[in-house]
Amino acid sequence: MNKRMVSILLSLAVLFSFAGCQSQKQANREKSITVGESVAFASYDPIGIMDGQGFIRYSPLVYETLIRYENGEAKPCLAESWQNDGTTWTFHLKKDVSFTDGSPFNAETVQLNIEKLQEFVGDYFGYYGAVSRITSVQVMDESTVRFVYDAPYYAVLQELSASSFGLLSPKMFENGNNPYGSTLEDTAGTGPFELKAKNTIAGQSYTFTKNATWHGAESGPDSFTVKIIPDADSRMMALQSGEIDLLFGSYQITYDMLSQLESNSRLETIFSDNLYITRNILLNASGAVLSDHNVRKAIQHGIDKEQIIATVLHGEELKADTLFTKETPNCDVELNSYDYNPKQAISLLETSGWTKTNAQGIRIKEGQTLHLQAIYQSEKPVDEQILMALKGQLAEIGIDLSIQGYETMTWFEKGTLGEFDLSVNDTYGFPQDPHVFLTAMMDDGLDKTSQQGLSQKTEIDSHIANMMQTVDAAVIQEDYRYVLTTLHKEAVNVPVSYAKEMAIYNPEVISGITFDDRPFTLDVTRIVLNRGISWSKV
User: Fold this and answer.
1) pLDDT digits (tens, 9 = 90+) for 443-452
2) Is-contact 117 125, C-beta < 8 A?
3) C-alpha dihedral, 176 to 181 to 185 to 189, nearest 10°
């Protein structure tokens, strides 16, 4: 498992959708929904493995973290309160909490989890200083634990809220067992749901049931089944036919699907008020063609974002001119946008010697056609649609773009090896944005590969490293200013839109959904069931 992949899995972390077959039944039967999901589960742990993103979208319902975020502020989860004293963070834990296997939750289990994270997957969390930079974990008493760091670190709470730092039962580590990327037995967390092996059909369906000992308030369904439907059209058909009750997530719901469903009066569509991620196209500045700054700038000016938003995204998202919104912490940096200007794009290409064209209108330089290769993760149909729109727009300025989708592991490997010119490489969403997205640029992955072609790469990494080694707000802001300004001027990233979250559901079964503050997350406990009917699985 590669370092950058863990961050991608985080950044992707926790997209929920539910597929199931429902029918009206007599009262007092189990209330259950079932969901459409594009990716099967390869491991039932908070981190997963490269080809196992499916469970990661649901892991916060099983494995809780010390901290959560709400309205941009750190809130208690398994930790009720905390204090920071420079290089130490002291957490006061909830009492009378247990894991679903009966093991008690206490300071010793927190200590064990952190130490095992460092032991088993520490190499992949170098840019998550909240864990990697802990020098010792001290058990103060049964419900108090202290993390000691090598230096003050400002992003501790943000990072500890990441789903990968969900806490596991100590029994999962018995006999030297490494559960990360290899757990296919019963889960053992403290969250509102659990997943038992007997309730799974590998690659087909996974039924989560209520944790009878959960410390939170009862809400949502008694159980939910995640049904794996890899094909987007098949997911839509399943929703229309009533086979499933809900689809969640902009990664697997295209706006074309929404348009087709508008005439279906038995389904409801809902959008979030919040903006979650930035849809981002990464240009490989280390590539043979895109190492030319003029060509990268030509692509920036040759993309009509407004048209993409109006057509592919049906006008539901906001145009993005910068990698992060100005409301994102430390990202209120003044940058000049690359406005859509095909004449300027053509002028930039001709300045770099792409002056001739073939019969198809594609530019030629020294006998070579201006051909670029774009890659994306095949389970994300919206990404393919955005790239198809880009293909048409770039053809108008003389650039030929071919598009290829890959499953996530292959996409990442090809990206790390530099076998791409353009790639969809969206940001992670707050609270992981912006610092985790930037710190991951120093480790193996698409961003690092692309940036190797920049003369400023060493200085970029220096500023990123520096921002993670200080709590001086002015220094941190200056580091962000340099990194964001440099990447923008070098035209490495093409931000397309700031994405909302979305869901489609059957109102006969579900009467309402509240969006979670976390990106890629549907909190099933926030689903309000339609109490006018009773149902059970068939």
Assistant:
1) 889 999 999 9
2) yes
3) 80
What the block records as the tokens of 41 is: 């589960």
**What mean pLDDT comes out for the span 310-332?**
94
pLDDT of residue 30: 57
Q: Which CATH number fits domain 67-175: 3.40.190.10, 3.40.50.10330, 3.30.530.20, 1.10.10.10?
A: 3.40.190.10
Closest CA to 80 of 94, 70, 90: 94
**CA–CA separation, 338 and 334 (whole Å):** 13
Locus of tokens 């594609």: 362
Please report, as a single letter, which amino acid is at residue 368: Q
What does DSSP say about strands 527-529 and 400-406: parallel, antiparallel, or unpaired? unpaired
Q: What residues have CB less than 8 Å from 425, skipping those under 6 apart?
A: 280, 281, 282, 415, 446, 447, 493
Task: Give the span between the Cα atoms of 175 and 385, in whole angstroms.
Answer: 48
Here the tokens at position 496 are: 């397309």
Confidence tier at 15 by pLDDT (50, 70, 90) = very low
Cα(333)–Cα(339) distance, rounded to whole angstroms? 18
In the three-class reduction of DSSP (H, G, I as helix; E, B as strand; rest coil), residue 528 is classed as strand
Superfamily of domain 277-499: Dipeptide-binding Protein; Domain 3 (3.10.105.10)
User: What is the fold, at CATH topology level, of the domain defined by 3-58+191-270+501-537?
Assistant: D-Maltodextrin-Binding Protein; domain 2 (3.40.190)
Query: In the predicted model, what is the mean pLDDT of residues 276-281?
Result: 95
**Which residue do the tokens 């864990």 mark?**
131
Residue (of 186, 226, 207, 180) closest to 48 by Cα position: 180
Q: How far is CA 39 from its chain centroid? A: 14
CB of 534 closer than 8 Å to CB of 27: yes
Locate CATH 3.40.190.10 in the chain. 3-58+191-270+501-537, 67-175
pLDDT in tens, 469-479: 888 999 999 99
Mean of the pLDDT values across residues 382-410?
96
Q: Report which of 349, 229, 250, 255 is spatially closest to residue 309, judged by C-alpha positions.
A: 255
Mean pLDDT of the chain: 89
CA distance 50 to 6: 8
User: pTM of the full predicted structure?
Assistant: 0.86
pLDDT category at 394 given cuts 50, 70, 90 is: very high
CA 193 vs CA 37, 126, 408: distances in Å: 18, 30, 27
Distance CA(49)–CA(51), nearest Å, equals 6
DSSP-assigned letters across all residues of 280-332: EEEE-TTSTTTTSHHHHHHHHHH--HHHHHHHTTTT-SEE-SSSS-TTSTT--
Q: Which structure tokens are listed for 1?
A: 């498992």
